[in-house]
Design goal:
This is DUF4982 domain-containing protein. Belongs to the glycosyl hydrolase 2 family. Pfam families: DUF4982, Glyco_hydro2_C5, Glyco_hydro_2, Glyco_hydro_2_C, Glyco_hydro_2_N. Keywords: Glycosidase, Hydrolase. By secondary structure, this protein is mainly beta. It folds into 5 domains: 181 residues, Galactose-binding domain-like (Jelly Rolls, Sandwich), CATH 2.60.120; 109 residues, Immunoglobulins (Immunoglobulin-like); 229 residues, Glycosidases (TIM Barrel); 79 residues, Immunoglobulin-like, CATH 2.60.40.10; 112 residues, Immunoglobulin-like, CATH 2.60.40.10. Helix content is 11%, strand content 37%. It is built from 9 helices and 49 strands. The strands form 11 sheets. Strands 1, 2, 4, 5, 6, 8, 9 and 11 form an 8-stranded mixed sheet that branches. The longest helix is centred in the middle third of the chain and has 19 residues. The protein is globular, with a radius of gyration of 28 Å. It starts with 5 loop residues before the first strand and ends in a 10-residue tail after the last strand. The structure holds beta-D-galactopyranose.
């Protein structure tokens, strides 16, 4: 059916209507502030001929889609894609987006702006043929005022966006391409809170009270004179009013007016990683008795500090920072922001006991921070991976000079109200640390941040540990010594840096492929490239795998256990950020093509935990953990040496291992041990572990030798999805034998088929060297598992997923989409 892609704006939503319906009565202007989701119904085209700056692309080359959108993830993996395998081996290029829309005539008394959360990269935006500006940095949020250029109904307006990710390589990881984050239209009255104009800092004053300091920047674009009134209210999570300010006069002189206020909250509930309690501040501006703006800011009340001897404290309580670094991609979904996909990553990390995220190495999507506020993660927000000195031929170094002030300011202005955000990083492993230019630029950047926010430490992630040689450290502008790697100097940190506060900004870089185990003595460590005698590490495996015993790491890093033991040992080591929480697209160290995603994750790209996840869970969480590795299918093994069996456990005094019912003895961890090990001659059957405390059973776990693949088991993370066209269900497929035992080595080819109110968004298996497109309906299992991601449609109804494999009965899973406004929100 032909549709005309005119969007007509209503408060709180946008609706695609046929042109004939365009003149419906519109309510837009009745509210002082309206925020409209502007993601729907864009047209997109790739520009093949790159010679023209603004080509006229034939109508047939455009297709209709909803944002957020990442065109790179739709492409094929290719060795010769210019992003290289470092960038994920997917295509870049130049893309165009356009959208036609009509605004109500009574909007003429309002201001209208468009907000982009992020466009990768080099975007230029036009309204009705007129350029609004360019933003080179692909991770920064920005806004343009449309007011002077907008044509009221019945005329229509055209927004066009050019996105240029053609110059490659420009990154050390996968970036995605396009308008990959959300877009909104915002209308306000002529006297309103400025974009990012609200700053709330809240901290406990004493045991019974907290102060909430508010600074509001108001914009008067209507040359309104006289006085307006501003007031504030604090609401708790249930919407109950708990504090309000007096009404204060705003003198309307000039275009920008700043107003400060302090409110008190009695018996505050503090925000913490265990109990992330949130408040809302409502700012109300009136003028001549008429509501001019009402603006909401979510905040939390909490305090924290770092101590050079005792580490980190949140709300006065000592706490290790148990963090992970995360790149922004969402695995098979690419860079296109999806709230449920981010939430799932965070749920998996939360269940491991992780309490902090580093947005490596760029500002994140706002949804990540909103989720961290709600779910209880601390966040280090990072600005840049390079300054003036490049790491890649076309990276941000070309734009740093012109844009760093603006980009850094915008990052802090946007993110400063989040209780989760506890630290700003002005750069990662910046080349300027090695010469004196590092002193000046560090000072400048720290000053830029502190001119806006003095409530959080400013750091940079340093790879040169030696204080004598690091010019960024020598600037004395940084609040903590935040080191990447160099665990070898941690014991003596206080000698090297007397009186300084420590943070492990990036750690480990250990490598593993889920479900793959090597026949080495697993209690030796191997570094890549080989500093060890083992040829294996030098040459790699023919199938691009790395052993999942925690024993392989990049030479600049360590195994997971090595560094965690150190952090645990010393109070002054406030915590760490493991490189990385999840595998990410790009940087497939240690392998070349066809490896195209990283090996560093505790969790693989599909979201399936690798074994070391359970080491962290046993150390970082209170959950009872008992996990055995490897699997128990070693019939084809060439060596007759025994198999090294590792067990991670906690909350117990001992673990006893049984092979086919025969005890192999009980063991307990001694000293600093983080796992147990038995050397077990292989015999098919069942290997069972039993953990006990004071002689009583705590937990049992087993691995079993499986027969031939016979069945497909499907498990969805949820069975009801919001019918919003965005919500996702993550479906895990596992291959079982006829007796229901997991076939850990199965590489069954699966075919995913969906009918009903949903679509197959992507498939994956977590294997770093699988070059089948993520859009493919067929996916080979990796080590017995694969993932199908289902995206909900926009109507209520049923979804049926059928997964087929040669010679097996198809597996069927039924899900449902439901009107999300009627759904009970998930609790964190
Ligand atoms: C670090 C760098 C990260 C990543 C990591 C891999 O030096 O900061 O971005 O490249 O190495 O080990």
């Amino acid at each position: 059916m032909m549709r005309s892609f005119l969007t007509i704006l209503f408060p709180g939503r946008s609706i695609l209507l046929a042109a004939a319906l365009m003149l419906s009565p519109l309510l837009f202007a009745q509210k002082p502030r309206t925020v409209v989701d502007f993601n729907g119904g864009w047209k997109f085209a790739l520009q093949k001929d790159t010679s023209s700056a603004k080509p006229s692309l034939p109508e047939a080359s455009w297709r209709v889609l909803d944002l957020p959108h990442d065109w790179s993830i739709e492409g094929e993996f290719r060795k010769d894609n210019p992003a290289t395998t470092q960038g994920g081996a997917l295509p870049g290029g130049i893309g165009w987006y356009k959208k036609t829309f009509v605004v109500p005539a009574d909007l003429k008394d309002k201001n209208l702006s468009i907000e982009f959360d992020g466009v990768y990269r080099n975007s230029e935006v036009w309204i009705n043929g007129r350029s609004l500006g360019k933003r080179p940095y692909g991770y920064i949020s920005f806004q343009y005022d449309l007011t002077p250029y907008i044509k009221p109904a019945p005329a229509s307006n055209l927004i066009e966006v050019r996105v240029d990710n053609g110059q490659q390589p420009n990154s050390r990881w996968y970036t995605g391409s396009g308008i990959y984050r959300n877009v909104r239209l915002v209308s306000t009255s002529k006297l309103a809170v400025k974009h990012w104009g609200s700053f709330v800092t809240a901290a406990p004053l004493n045991a019974k009270q907290a102060t909430v300091n508010v600074e509001t920047n108001v914009k008067n674009t209507g040359a309104i004179t006289g006085k307006a009134q501003i007031s504030y209210q604090v609401l708790d999570q249930s919407g109950k009013l708990i504090s309000s300010s007096k009404i204060k006069a705003l003198d309307l002189t000039g275009e920008e007016i700043s107003s400060k206020e302090q409110l008190l909250v009695n018996n505050p509930v503090l925000w913490s990683t265990d109990k992330p309690f949130l408040y809302k501040l409502v700012t109300t501006i009136t003028q001549n008795g008429k509501l001019s703006d009402q603006f909401e800011t979510t905040f939390g009340i909490r305090s924290f500090y770092f101590d050079a001897d005792k580490g980190f404290f949140l709300n006065g309580r000592s706490m290790k920072i148990k963090g992970v670094c995360m790149h922004h991609d969402l695995g098979a979904l690419g860079a296109a922001v999806n709230t449920r996909a981010i939430e799932r990553q965070l749920e998996i990390l939360k269940a491991m006991g992780c309490n902090a995220i580093r947005t490596a190495h760029n500002p994140s999507a706002p949804e990540l921070l909103e989720l961290c506020d709600k779910m209880g993660f601390l966040v280090m927000v990072e600005a840049f991976d390079m300054w003036k000195k490049k790491k890649n031929k076309f990276d941000y170094f070309t734009d740093f000079e012109d844009w760093h002030v603006r980009d850094l300011q915008d990052m802090v202005l946007r993110d400063r109200n989040h209780p989760s955000v506890f630290m700003w990083s002005v750069g990662n492993e910046i080349r300027e640390q090695f010469d004196s230019t590092g002193i000046t630029i560090t000072k400048e950047l720290v000053d830029i941040v502190k001119a806006i926010d003095t409530t959080r430490p400013v750091i940079a992630a340093l790879s040169e540990w030696n204080p004598e040689k690091n010019f960024m450290y020598k600037s004395k502008a940084l609040d903590l010594v935040a080191l990447n790697y160099h665990h070898e100097v941690y014991d003596d940190f206080q000698k090297h840096y007397p009186g300084q506060k420590f943070l492990g900004a990036e750690n480990m870089s250990a490598l593993a492929t889920r479900g793959h185990y090597e026949e080495w003595p697993s209690d030796s460590t191997y570094l890549w490239p080989a500093k060890s005698p083992l040829k294996y590490v030098e040459n790699g495996n023919a199938d691009y795998t790395v052993s999942a015993y925690d024993q392989v790491a990049a030479y600049w890093g360590s195994t997971h256990e090595q560094t965690w033991k150190l952090i645990k040992k010393h109070k002054f080591l406030s915590g760490l950020f493991v490189w990385t929480g999840f595998d990410y697209l790009g940087e497939p160290t240690p392998y070349p093509w066809p490896a195209r995603s990283s090996y560093f994750g505790i969790v693989d790209l599909a979201g399936f935990p690798k074994d070391v996840y359970y080491m962290y869970q046993s150390e970082w969480s209170d959950k009872n953990v008992l996990h055995i590795l490897p699997h128990w299918n070693h019939e084809a093994r060439k060596s007759d040496k025994p198999v090294d069996v590792w067990v991670y456990y906690n909350n117990a005094d001992e673990v006893e291992l049984f092979l086919n019912g025969q005890s192999l003895g009980a063991k307990r961890k001694g000293g600093e041990d983080l796992h147990l090990m038995w050397r077990v001659p292989f015999q098919p059957g069942e290997l069972k572990a039993v953990s006990r405390k004071n002689g009583r059973l705590v937990k049992e776990a087993k691995v079993e030798t499986a027969g031939e693949p016979a069945k497909i088991e499907l498990t969805a993370d949820r069975s009801i999805l919001n019918a919003d066209g965005k919500d996702l269900a993550f479906v895990t497929a596992r291959i079982l034998d006829k007796n229901g035992r997991f076939v850990a080595l199965a590489s069954t080819q699966l075919e995913f088929e969906i009918t009903g109110e949903g679509q197959l968004a992507a498939t994956d298996n977590g294997y770093q060297a699988d070059t089948t497109s993520f859009q493919s309906k067929t996916r080979q299992c990796w080590k017995g598992m694969a993932l199908g991601i289902i995206r909900a449609g926009k109507k209520q109804g049923n979804i049926t997923l059928t997964v087929k494999a040669p010679g097996m009965t198809p597996a069927v899973l039924r899900l449902r989409t439901s009107d999300h406004s009627k759904m009970v929100l998930r609790k964190f």
